[in-house]
Amino acid sequence: MNVETINETNCFSGRIGFYRHASRVNDCDMQFSVFVPPQAASGPVPVLTFLSGLTCTEENFMVKSGAQRIASELGLMLVSPDTSPRGEDVPDDPDGEYDFGLAAGFYLDATEAPWSANYKMYSYITTEFMDTVFEHFPGDRARHGLTGHSMGGHGALTIGLKNPEMFRSLSAFAPICTTLHSPWGRKALGYYLGDDRSTWEVYDACEVARRSTLTDHYSKILVDQGADDPYLAEQLKPELYEAACEESGLPLELRIHEGYDHGYYFISTFIEEHLRFHATELRR
């Protein structure tokens, strides 16, 4: 599988780059970014994959989070895929809105036309993308953590619990905790999956958590949420995720931070704690 280098440069004694490859799963070109820490010169290093949110690309996390300095210290390889398929032939929101279609793949596999031809982000992340990363970059597949923000937090919490063989640590920033009860989620899943809401449950973080038996796999699931997030009450609903984890026995640590909103100032404030959390878990 060929990977095209868009650009690369040194960063905190490591190397950051942006790349493109042809995706068979999504039937289009997909882009992603990777930060390789200096420790990779001596062998494969642990990996943290970050799934971004609505309107984002593979660039947002790498450009805005400030994660590379600590990742370089800890020897963590950082990976961030794009948030959806793209291209002239890839269908978008029929109303031209930001919360569906391009940059809003919701990390699921669409079953409804016309989106089912391209929007296979769940399969892409869990198969083709991972294979591409570990084939071309010096990451240790056995030491792999997953995190994400907003829509990407939804992706992390669903993918991480459904694929424990792939991930050893799990966290999220301001995740959409329930697509079933979020206007963003209901719109996206209605288009991507159709009207039968029973098919939506496998992509609802609360339902996945409620049915999970992974009480011993993750030492904890770390979730940070800003108390001044404008989307908190209507779209995110972390209290429902907390209740679902209590019901199944999943070890959740939910932290609410006064004065913080939904953006990258919030993420950049707490990213070091997440990186150190994942580094510790991946050394176990």
As a whole number of angstroms, the C-alpha radius of gyration is: 17 Å
Classified by CATH, the class is Alpha Beta
Spans of at least 5 consecutive residues with low confidence: none
Helical amount among residues, as a percent range? Answer: 25-40%
Largest sheet: 9 strands, mixed
Would you list the SSEs in sequence order as H and E? EEEEHHEHEHEHHEHHEH
Look at the structure and give the mean pLDDT.
98
Question: Reading side by side through the largest sheet, how are the strands ordered?
Answer: 1-2-3-5-4-6-7-8-9
Structural domain tally:
1
- Give the strand content: 15-25%
Per CATH, the superfamily is Alpha/Beta hydrolase fold, catalytic domain
The CATH topology name reads Rossmann fold
Task: List the total number of helices.
Answer: 9
**Head-to-tail CA distance between termini:** 32 Å
Going by CATH, the architecture would be: 3-Layer(aba) Sandwich
What does this structure look like?
The chain has 284 residues and is α/β, with parallel strands linked by helices. The mean pLDDT is 98. Helices cover 32% and strands 23% of the residues. The protein has a single domain, classed as Alpha/Beta hydrolase fold, catalytic domain (Rossmann fold, 3-Layer(aba) Sandwich). It is globular.
